[in-house]
Amino acid sequence: MSQIDFFVEGIQQLPAIVESKDDTQERVAQAFMEFMQLGHIYESAMEVVKTYLGILDNEFNIKFQRNPIHNIESRLKSADSIMNKLIKKGIPFTIENARKYLLDIAGIRVTCCYINDIYVIAEMLSRRDDFVVLKQKDYIKNPKPSGYRSFHLVLNVPVHLSSSKTTVPVEIQIRTIAMDFWASLEHQLRYKPSGTITPEISEELRLCAERIAETDIQMQKLYTEIME
Ligand code: 0O2
Fold this sequence. Notes:
Elements (H helix, E strand, L loop, with lengths): L2 H17 L3 H42 L4 E8 L2 H10 L6 H7 L4 E7 L2 H13 L4 E7 L12 E10 L4 E12 H14 L8 H29 L1
Parallel strand pairs: 2-5
Antiparallel strand pairs: 1-2, 3-4, 4-5
Helix pairs in contact: 1-2, 6-7
């Protein structure tokens, strides 16, 4: 079931739950409604960012006959993951706390062709005067001990609703196709319930990331040599 279908089905059930005069059910219905509204706001914020990314990509295509963006994916964090992350941080699970303490409820992953494209996209996003940069981490210049490379940006994004305006954070991970290849496989291996990641395997994975990073740099050099 998609997130949208989930929301729509929930909305259809609400009148029956609220009409049942039971106080607990009313509170459950209210919390559920608030959660759905929150999901809608975060989905809308992601749409705002994705639309802008599409505009940038098209503009580059017209000006330079190439697309810096290879792919864009987005996801809304599930209720389960929101709850687990708050519990891990020792924070009670409420809608207000999720909004206040979690910056990755809305997540967008942008894969670019070349390393330089990452910085161009990050700068364009940061420069928009209606987006506020809340957090920025350059795991390309400073890779994580695991070998993970990516540029992380958290933007506060405005959402215009029918009678109000609000802002919510959207986490944007920007990386090359090669960095994404490593991160996806490493994530799969690390979270396989049956597998054990020994320190030796961790080191092998880090070395793979190093080799991939060298190839990325080489591809960037080749591109610059050919095109500029
Ligand atoms: P998911 O399922 O991808 O969302 P935070 O953990 O967000 O509270 P922080 O320090 O801002 O705090 O997080 P960080 O490390 O800057 O970014 C977290 C996200 O980056 C992770 O999200 C992963 O998506 C990605 N990431 C970070 N380190 C690694 C790594 O070593 N390997 C891989 N494959 N991905 C990494 P989540 O929440 O862990 O999961």
